[in-house]
Design a protein that fits this description.
By secondary structure, this protein is of the alpha/beta class. Helices cover 38% and strands 15% of the residues. The protein folds into two domains: 115 residues, Aspartate Aminotransferase, domain 1; 221 residues, Type I PLP-dependent aspartate aminotransferase-like (Major domain) (Aspartate Aminotransferase, domain 2). InterPro entries: Aminotrans_II_pyridoxalP_BS, Aminotransferase_I/II_large, ArAT, HisP_aminotrans, HistidinolP_aminotransfase, PyrdxlP-dep_Trfase, PyrdxlP-dep_Trfase_major, PyrdxlP-dep_Trfase_small.
Length: 359
């Protein structure tokens, strides 16, 4: 037997592995999972029924063009069909974007810490990740990101609200940034948490894209819409970019169940907004509780809160787990805690209070 092994791309060396939020152990003390940015509510009215009906034909391939979903999105957001592309969650579309724009020697700029998939999808394509530290207020440093642009820069991610900090870039600074980015550099506004924003100074990326050919907006059904397990996201971009995304999509990647569930979710907007309002109210309660305990909490417009804990991060996460909730630690940096059921947040607040008293 040959001792040789297959040659793999050197670009894969050192690529970090995506770490999903750890679930609550079935036999452990933790009863609630707050480690992934999921919606704690069950599917919206009519969604489960649509998915079950679609499941009756999953011996057939799904509609690769996602025609029904594309038509619904075009009407919902008043955009041309040719400006839309779908994928396996917004992270799948993000990978398609990098594949469409950047290769070896090209640069992809993003804030750090931000969504941990950005360095992965960048390095998989052989491109060079350019990480720009957040400001002391945990916000994108747009001036520093502009300064990082070179003639090899192909794509810039702006995660708004930012994951995992929940902080936002507001209209004035974002528009000034977009006006200064070279027209041949694609700016991706990743708006996975758009529905949770209550700050009126945060612009809707779809309005910004309309007269800017180098702006693309990412959205997902995984968060507010509660379809995390079905993997469906979409991009809104001008024709050349959207066409490239459709070319780089995995064939039949979005299942028919996901397509039908997404359409039904879009048609249940009233129920959606009611649930999102409840999560936003719970977010405010948690932030108030933490600040009352003396914690410094980054201003969040997402469905999670961020505590920068440095070398206390792992100990804090362990304390939360002993109290019955699993949170998401980023060792050496901080903890992200998804807003879940009120009972879960009560346990979290109690754990946070006890941890602080012990400091």
């Amino acid at each position: 037997m040959s001792e040789k092994t297959p040659k793999l791309r050197a670009a894969l060396d050192g690529i970090p592995t995506y770490k999903p939020g750890r679930p609550a152990a079935a036999d452990g003390p933790a009863a609630y999972k707050l480690s992934s940015n999921e919606n704690p509510y069950p599917p919206l009215p009519g969604v489960l029924e649509s998915a079950v009906t679609a499941a009756g034909s999953f011996n057939r391939y799904p509609d690769m063009a996602c025609k029904g979903l594309m038509a619904e999105l075009a009407e919902r957001f008043s955009v041309p069909l040719s400006h839309l592309a779908t994928g396996t969650g917004s992270v799948g579309v993000a990978q398609q974007l990098v594949q469409s724009t950047a290769g070896p020697g090209d640069g992809v700029i993003y804030a750090w810490r931000s969504f941990e998939a950005y360095p992965i999808v960048t390095q998989v394509s052989g491109a060079t990740p350019v990480q720009v530290p957040l400001t002391s207020g945990e916000v994108h440093d747009l001036d520093a990101m502009l300064a990082a642009v070179t003639d090899r820069t192909r794509l810039i991610f702006v995660c708004n609200p930012n994951n995992p900090t929940g902080t936002v870039v507001r209209r004035a600074e974002l528009e000034a940034f977009l006006d200064r980015v070279p027209g041949d550099v694609l700016v991706v506004l990743d708006e996975a948490y758009r529905e949770f924003i209550r700050d009126e100074q945060v612009p809707d990326g779809i309005e910004l894209y309309r007269d800017r050919p180098n702006v693309c907006v990412l959205r997902t059904f995984s968060k507010a819409y509660g379809l995390a397990g079905l993997r469906v996201g979409f991009a809104v971009a001008h024709e050349p970019v959207a066409a490239a995304l459709r070319k780089t999509a995995v064939p039949f990647g979005v299942s028919q169940l996901a397509q039908e569930a997404a359409v039904a979710s879009l048609r249940s907007e009233a129920a959606l907004l009611e649930r999102v309002d409840a999560l936003v109210a719970e977010r405010a309660r948690v932030v108030e509780g933490l600040t009352g305990q003396g914690w410094t909490v980054a201003e969040t417009q997402a469905n999670f809160v961020w505590l920068r804990l440095g070398d206390r991060t792992v100990d804090f996460a362990a304390a939360c787990e002993r109290a019955g909730v699993v949170v998401r630690p980023f060792p050496g940096e901080g903890v992200r805690v998804t807003i879940g059921e009120s009972a879960a947040m009560d346990l979290f607040l109690q754990a946070a209070a006890e941890f602080r008293k012990a400091l």
